[in-house]
Amino acid sequence: MLHLAEATDRALVRAGLSRADIDGICTYPGKADNSPGMSPLGTGDVRQALGLQTRWHCAVPDGPAQMAPIMVAAMAVMTGQARHVLCFRALTESSSQTAQQRASVPGAGRPAIGGWLSWLVPMGAMSASNWAGWMATRYFHEFGMTREHLGMIACGQRRFAQMNPQAVMQKPLTMDDYLAARMISTPLGLFDCDIPIDGAAVVIVSAADAARDCASVPLRIEAMGSALRSTETWDQREDLTTMGAHDAAADLWERTDLKAKDVDVLGLYDGFSIFVPMWLEALGFCKHGEAKDFIAEGNIGPGGRYPTNTGGGQLSGGRLHGFSLLHEACLQLWGDAGDRQIDSAKTAVCGMGGGFIAGAMLLNRD
Q1: Which parts of the sequence belong to the Thiolase C-terminal domain (predicted)?
Q2: Is 195 within 8 Å of 37 (Cβ atoms)?
Q3: CB contact set of 246 (below 8 Å; sequence gap of 6+)
Q4: Is this structure's pTM higher than 0.90?
Q5: What is the C-alpha separation between 90 and 320, in angstroms, rounded?
């Protein structure tokens, strides 16, 4: 709760608001104990601890991935349910891990597992690292991607992280370091996986007329995409070289006149490094199967045309389930990203989610 209280106060100062102005609250996925430290706080815990008096609240465990509370909050303010909605993500995955229980292992500590997990866990597919490994293996087979291509993502994001004092990982990461690290789930190694942390992030979604009076320049949601047209499992998708990101991204571009070429900075979900090329292709920054060349050409790292995960992402910044990516996109559009600031950034795209779930959002600074 301490991390969340600090994040809330920072967000309120930036917005020029007080706790009394917050009349809505929303989170993903809500309070849950299915994975150690993954979601220890619900909206009730936070309202009580922060002394908030809200007229609207919501938790979204089933929706367009971790983007869901931001999208739902936007709809809430558009329909007059609230004026200023505090959207939060808080985790204690680092301190919750022990030798007996690991973060992000579904059903950890429970005697029985049901549903589609009952087909995976008995086969040793205990976590998303295994499921993402399947997708990476198929993608490598189809398109000739190599571990070095994924290493370019991890090393590039580490260079961004070194310019971000809030990032967990500050030590340089070389390609030799990346390739020498232990394997987790072939072809994914240690540095292909995001880092469990204790932390929190807060985003305030305000009605357009209310935002005009805030301290910071309002950032406008240009478009959102949340379509899902595939089976809701990791292993039964028709094409394992695509994700739900492809449905959400297509939906996003149908709701705006802007194109991929208009985007200045990207925040793409990197729970595992393989998600980044899939999001790049889904959003149309390169064609299907061409992400490896797009990455090798230096497009997404420091100095690239489409800088991606400029705060270090979750691979080096720490896992906040996409909220840190959106926070970083906002900093870039405000021009407050310090040494990693992208010149004249006016438009950002953020994609959250891996596997079959996804949400995409396009942000503008007018």
Answers
A1: 230-359
A2: no
A3: 278, 281, 282
A4: yes
A5: 7
